[in-house]
Amino acid sequence: MKTAISEERVHILDSQSNVWSVISEIALSDNQEDAFYVCDVGDIVRKHKTWKAKLPRVEPYYAVKCNHSLAVLEVLSTLGTGFDCASKGEIEKVLSLDVRPDRIIFALPTKPASHIRHAASVGVSRMTFDNETELHKLKKLYPNAEMVIRIRSDATDAQFILGRKFGCDPETEAPELLRLAKSLGINVIGVSFHVGSGCREPEAFQRAISSSRYIFDYATSLGYNFHVLDIGGGYPGEHGTSIDKIADVINSSLDKYFPDPSVEIIAEPGTFYVCSAYTLACNIHSIRNVTETDAETGNTKTRKMYYINDGVFGSFNCIISCDNHVVVPIPLKDYTGSKYHPSSIWGPTCDCVDQVVENILLPEMMVGDWLVFKDMGAYTLSIASSFNSFPIPKVHIVADKNVW
Q: Can you tell me where the transmembrane regions are (predicted)?
């Protein structure tokens, strides 16, 4: 394994400093106008300790798509996690850290042929499937692959229902696919599922694990010896959230349906590890005052439109991709005692959909002031674009001295 992030790239926090003080120091430095992130490595380390304590049987395979920052991958590889990759590019990035190929699962059920050939060339043998076409491709391109069948088992309450795109029906489609795999001589080693990103129904894991047991037993009747169960992602990672309830359901379900310790249990956490580690600071570069008249009373009021230097085509892409996603701006400056006004926050591009916050009460701020957004580590930088050639924010890495 290659050396983790070098100390020159990390700001070591002492007893007098924290993430907020670092943000203030950067924001108030000369000529600082661009939006920027602060990534707290210690937060990632603490999350890993929590995972190992709450889910001792489950090996985390970090979902690279969530945040593919080299710093994040280096920290997690040092901690010993595996990696869930969805493309040859992600596989290459992880392998560049000297992660062993057997610590990677290519967890995309529908893969381009060139990506399958690449996985074969570098020895990444574990991958998922949920359809006949994929089995025939694998038979031709990578007959020695170790396949994991992905079943559909959606939570009733989740931010993203991934079953709309991936996962075969465990009762009707899965048995047919396993019979086909057997006839083709393909080595299937286990079952995977994903209850949905941002799962808010812990019991969904119980249903999915129960369905997986059924598939394991059916596979045995075909002569397979399944030994891998991938319980996917969906674990919350924002400040103030907990995986305790989900962990309780998973642990009790594993005890009931998979008591055999020889079965390898893995998962694909992403948001859990990185969401709260990243804090984003944005600069107000323009302000527009809009006078509105109440149709019933005739009273007028002023609504403020604040324009910041990051938006929905950049770090706030999550607002477009998830209808219910809400970000909360925190003024960096202390506005205690100030009068608050109805406000909205807009990104920097020329597109009218580039609205970060539609309606919020904020103090009267000035051009050059800063707004801070917590919980910005998941599905932000990894899907940000440079539309209108606005830059993607730089990341400043910090770590507590003891953690480092």
A: none
